[in-house]
Amino acid sequence: MCVFCKIANHEIPSNAVYEDNQVLAFLDINPVTKGHTLIIPKKHYDNFLDCDSETVKHIHTIAKQLTLHYQLVLKPNGFNLLSNMNGAAGQSVFHVHFHLIPRYDENDGLVLLFNHDDSVQYTKAELNQLILK
Ligand code: 5GP
Ligand code: ZN
After folding, report:
1. HSE-CB of 46 using CA atoms within 13 angstroms
2. For the whole prediction, is pTM greater than 0.90?
3. Where does the pLDDT of residue 66 fall: very low under 50, low under 70, confident under 90, or very high at 90 and above?
4. How many Cα atoms sit within 13 Å of 105 on the Cβ side?
């Protein structure tokens, strides 16, 4: 059983901030900012691609409710909501989770760099291939 399944089963303790039959939200053990929260389905899925859309929808609803709540109690200036899929994207725990990260300013604990890559070019064929039909 994976570490987040154990947390969902209360076999490993966590600082839970929300729980229902399907979902658990708890504070990250190594927070990048105050309030850094992980939202997981109790059922194991490796990543958001495997996770059924109804569950993702429910997680999103809880993420919005927690965002509204944290706005009041933590008073951050923004939020990031993100989920890493696979090692190349930084996933280290292979039980789908969404990071809800309150942001205080650009110099807080989260460094999210969108480095413009000039080498990225598209041919007409590639642009066409990328359209979801
Ligand atoms: P990932 O890198 O997979 O997107 O994020 C995994 C997150 O899970 C990390 O931010 C890490 O700090 C957190 N984490 C890993 N193990 C535990 C744990 O046992 N308890 C809690 N609360 N968080 C954990
Ligand atoms: Zn699991």
Report:
1. 5
2. yes
3. very high
4. 1
Q: For residue 83, which ligand has an atom nearest its CA?
A: 1
Does 33 sit in the ligand 1 pocket, CB within 6 Å? no
What CA–CA distance (Å, rounded) separates 129 from 55? 29
> Under a CB-based contact definition with an 8 Å cutoff, are residues 40 and 49 in contact?
no
Nearest residue to 93 (alpha-carbon basis) of 47, 34, 60, 48: 47
Determine whether 125 is exposed, middle or buried from the number of CB atoms within 10 Å of its CB (0-12, 13-18, 19+).
exposed
Q: Ligand 1 pocket, 92 CB below 6 A?
A: yes
- Residue with the two structure tokens 């205080």: 104
